[in-house]
């Protein structure tokens, strides 16, 4: 721990800590918890509701929608190894969970949280000081990386970070512990600056969901997003690859590429793979995960000049995969796709059926057709469902 950290003179009074595996509580959902809207439905009922909702939202393409691809029954619980939870000091203890109004509902036994998440929260709850010594607002975890967000610009009390905790975190499977000092923490979780790695290493890697033995483990950081059920995500990538059929001389664009889990795959088939991602951390990871790809950092609309320059390469065809946030494709990006790039095929992974509908209507007005839409149940027990649309150019833009 760097000597620049200010240490309070008094040590935290330490209670008996839970063992690393004691957080694997029985599935017990607090009635007030606002999460998992489908938790009282059977898997069959949940999938039926999701299918009905998609049919209404995407009614223009009802004949193209396939049955929902669902996770194996064993993945319906304990699958969430990435969380962003609120924290609140109550009754001499940190409550970590979801907000209901102004109150944090603790969810120590959440059935969808992974054992590692539950164990790490229980471990840190036992040692973290109370406010104002430690004004925590959020607890975040991305696999083996944990971040504590405090509402302060100053380094808070850190004497709880000791060799005993070091051993416990290692036993749980935590590799990096971050402190994010965010004096305006509230509705906005992150600020740009004041990130401190207070213990462990800044990056982790794992092979979750990697199906091929020759593929290397994916590098990720504390704010990196990865699909929560990797095996199901690999099925989606398999389907996208089978549809797009990238070849060696094809130009392949991967927009909103994240840490590059798809880029690494496309580089096996094509020599001309280009990705764009807004997050600097994800770009850093993507360059490690797919060193053969060209990866630009920034909003996709801001990188259109660089993408347009790539079009001058010798190639057979242009292919594109997009995995945008809920807001969907930016207006400038939609225009670039339909007027400048004109890819022969697009695969569009959407987490919002509403913005997917908007973007499909725009694409179809410019000579594209959605041939198939495959729903994926990446978030069991919730109302969320994602869709993978296969889109082909069927006539020129001026036709």
Structural write-up:
With about 400 residues, the protein is an alpha/beta fold. Helices cover about 25% and strands about 25% of the residues. The chain is built from 9 helices and 16 strands. The protein has helices spanning about 45-55, 115-125, 165-170, 230-245, 260-265, 280-290, 305-310, 330-340, 355-365, and strands at about 80-90, 95-100, 105, 135-140, 145-150, 175-180, 195-200, 205, 220, 250-255, 270-275, 295, 320, 345-350, 370-375, 385-395. The strands form 3 sheets. A 7-stranded mixed β-sheet has the order 3-2-1-4-5-6-7, covered by helices on one side. Strands 12-11-10-13-14-16-15 form a 7-stranded mixed β-sheet, sandwiched between helices. Strands 8-9 form a two-stranded antiparallel ribbon. Helix 5 links the parallel strand 10 and strand 11. The longest helix is centred in the N-terminal third of the chain and has 15 residues, at about 45-55. The radius of gyration is 23 Å and the shape is globular.
Principal-axes shape call: globular
CATH fold field value of the largest domain: Rossmann fold
Structural class, from helix and strand content? alpha/beta
Helix content bin = 10-25%
Low-confidence stretches: 1-26
The CATH class designation of the largest domain is Alpha Beta
Give me the number of helical elements. Answer: 9
**pLDDT averaged over residues:** 90
Q: How many strand elements? A: 16
The name of the CATH architecture of the largest domain is: 3-Layer(aba) Sandwich
Portion of residues in beta strands equals 15-25%
Please give the largest β-sheet: 7 strands, mixed
Number of domains: 2
Span between termini: 65 Å
Secondary-structure element series = HEEEHEEHEEEEHEHEHEHEHEHEE
Radius of gyration: 23 Å
Task: State the CATH superfamily name of the largest domain.
Answer: Vaccinia Virus protein VP39
Strand order of the largest sheet: 3-2-1-4-5-6-7
């Amino acid at each position: 721990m760097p000597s620049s950290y200010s240490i309070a003179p008094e040590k935290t009074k330490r209670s008996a800590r839970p063992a690393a595996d004691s957080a694997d509580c029985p599935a017990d959902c607090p009635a007030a918890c606002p999460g998992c809207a489908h938790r009282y439905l059977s898997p069959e009922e949940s999938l039926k509701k999701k299918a009905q909702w998609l049919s209404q939202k995407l009614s223009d393409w009802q004949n193209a929608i396939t049955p929902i691809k669902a996770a194996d029954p064993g993945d319906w619980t304990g699958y969430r190894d990435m969380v962003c939870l609120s924290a609140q000091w109550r009754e001499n203890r940190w409550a970590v969970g979801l907000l209901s109004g102004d109150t944090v509902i603790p969810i120590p036994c959440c059935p969808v949280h992974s054992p590692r998440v539950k164990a790490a929260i229980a471990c840190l709850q036992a040692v973290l000081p109370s406010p104002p010594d430690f004004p925590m607002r959020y607890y975040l975890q991305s696999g083996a990386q944990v971040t504590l967000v405090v509402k302060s610009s100053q380094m808070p009390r850190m004497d709880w970070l000791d060799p005993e905790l070091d051993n416990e975190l290692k036993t749980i499977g935590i590799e990096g512990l971050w402190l994010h000092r965010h004096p305006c923490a509230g509705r906005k979780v992150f600020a740009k600056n004041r990130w401190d790695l207070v213990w462990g290493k800044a990056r982790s890697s794992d092979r979750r969901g990697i199906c091929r033995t020759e593929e290397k483990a994916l590098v990720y950081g504390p704010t990196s997003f990865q699909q929560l059920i990797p095996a199901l995500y690999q099925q989606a990538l398999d389907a996208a690859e089978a549809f797009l059929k990238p070849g060696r001389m094809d130009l392949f664009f991967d927009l909103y590429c994240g840490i590059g889990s798809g880029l690494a795959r496309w580089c096996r088939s094509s020599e001309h793979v280009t990705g764009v991602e807004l997050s600097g951390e994800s770009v850093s990871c993507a360059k490690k995960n797919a060193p053969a790809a060209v990866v630009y950092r920034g909003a996709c609309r801001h990188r259109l000049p660089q993408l347009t320059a790539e079009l001058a390469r010798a190639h057979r065809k242009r292919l594109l995969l997009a995995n945008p946030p809920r807001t969907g494709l930016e207006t400038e990006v939609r225009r670039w796709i339909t007027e400048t790039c004109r890819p022969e095929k697009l695969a569009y992974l959407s987490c919002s059926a509403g913005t997917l509908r908007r973007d499909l209507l725009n694409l179809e007005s410019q000579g594209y057709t959605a041939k198939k839409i495959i729903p994926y149940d990446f978030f069991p027990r919730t109302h969320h469902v994602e869709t993978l649309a296969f889109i082909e150019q069927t006539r020129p833009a001026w036709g």
